[in-house]
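Blinded run. Sample ID left blank on purpose so nobody reads anything into the name before looking at the predicted structure. Input follows.
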Amino acid sequence: MTSGKIEFGVQVPPEGRDFEQMKRLCLVAEDAGYSVFTVTDHFHNMVKPDGSTNHPLEAWTLLGGLASVTSKIKLGTLVSCVHYRHPTILAKMATTVDIISGGRTIFGVGAGWHQAEFEGFLGEFPSAKKRLDGLEDALNIAKSMFVNERTNYEGKVYSAKNTLNSPLPLQQPIPIMVGGGGIKRTLKLAAKYADISHFGFYFDSREVIAQRIDALKEHCKAAGRDYNEITKSISPSVNFNPTQAEFEESARRVSIRRKIPLDEAGKIIEKTCMHPEAIRDTFNSYIDEGITLFLTVLYNEENIRLFAENVMKKI
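Blinded prediction complete.
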């Protein structure tokens, strides 16, 4: 991403959406002038992992399909759990999407958090330390594989032994986005490895985001990294006339992630249903704090177009 330039993207959870729906939303976003289109990387419906319906398409296969039908918009995950696929495999998949897209991939990764998915697909839920150690290994492996045909790396959780990545991605290198707001470790990793630090989600308060900005600054100072080299990113949620089903789905997500009662989560979501002028004021206040990339959670075509016309193009 361009340092200092304000950019807008669309974040769409693929739960309950087929490929034709995701393709249409991505094409609408591209046509409306957004810079980025991101999808969550989950194997279960995040809200109802044991339910029988509304489970998502696999993220990187989905991005490969979207890459083949778009021409301008950047594509990425927000974010891929590095434990769901060995990091060498994940880097190869991102390389392939970058080639299909003509150099439009963002490599969004994180340590993972969804216990039901870990247990259902991997058979265990590792400790936070092991998940974060694995994230650091994955970042080292990917950074090498994106520019070198052969990679050797010995890590705490993952290693690469003379791993071949050929052909190389078109971008040299693919930009890396580290997702997560953990002040002690995740933001330390972002300060060391990330091109984009994505540390704010729609259920986070302004105070929490400010704390994470301060923490990233301190980690950059300790690592000898220029804080201004890193794009700071958050995912606000904006609802223009949400359906009852969309409202309830948003509230359930917030309830689960913040571990709060559903009615309390509903009050948080109500605050996202604002007049466009109020939304612009909110976004401008984030820009004043140094946020330059907004991967806004928008659930349907109407909201994507309304946000572009009433907010994005007026900031």
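Unblinding after everyone has recorded impressions. Residues 7-314 form a domain with the TIM Barrel fold (CATH 3.20.20.30).
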